[in-house]
Design a protein that fits this description.
The chain is built from three helices and eight strands. The chain has about 160 residues and is of the alpha/beta class. The chain has a single domain (about 1-160), classed as Rossmann fold. The chain has an eight-stranded mixed beta sheet. Strand 5 (about 75-80), helix 2 (about 90-100) and strand 6 (about 100-110) form a beta-alpha-beta unit. The longest helix has 20 residues, at about 10-30.
């Protein structure tokens, strides 16, 4: 696990390396479909092959606007879910996303661990409950924690791989 300090340039660069690493991990799957849930500005469009991004906000730059519980996919190679699952119906939303992912597919997660629902213990519980592997994000780093910024809580990011 690594804790990041956003005021330290070398740590910010490491964060970018981590992001580039999981983008490469997804592209190495030669994906036919990647879904970015809550894509916001859709910043991975053009960086990740065959990516469709959507968001519930009408100010997003996604391919379409909808709530994830209204969307259904099958056989998705990877799902990006960054900053989405710390609101209501968290477990229901997670199970819905999990149904989309093909065996051996990836789920890239980032959540606010100060939201009241998520904690490292809860993350580990989900891993066991849903039989998820936790491959490293970067080198030997499995979890990345960033401090609170702009009044928001601390964030933790990781990758889960579904069973083959």
């Amino acid at each position: 696990m690594i804790n990041f300090n956003w005021n330290n340039r070398s740590e910010v660069n490491k964060f970018k390396e981590v992001e580039n690493n999981y983008v490469q991990m997804i592209n190495d799957l030669n994906p036919s479909l990647v879904v970015d849930v809550g894509c916001g500005r859709n910043r991975f469009k053009g960086r990740i092959n065959n990516l469709i991004g959507f968001d519930i906000s009408d100010t997003s730059k996604g391919d379409f606007i909808d709530d994830l519980l209204n969307v259904t996919y099958d056989n998705v190679d990877a799902v990006l879910c960054e900053g989405v699952l710390h609101f209501d119906k968290i477990e229901k939303r997670f199970k819905h996303i999990l149904e989309w992912v093909r065996p051996g597919g990836l789920i890239v997660m980032r959540v606010n661990i100060d939201s009241g629902f998520w904690s490292m213990k809860k993350i580990k519980t989900f891993e066991k409950q849903y039989c998820l592997e936790n491959p490293p994000l970067y080198k030997n780093i499995n979890y990345m924690i960033s401090p609170a910024i702009n009044g928001e809580g601390r964030r933790v990011q990781w990758i889960w791989k579904t069973q083959q």
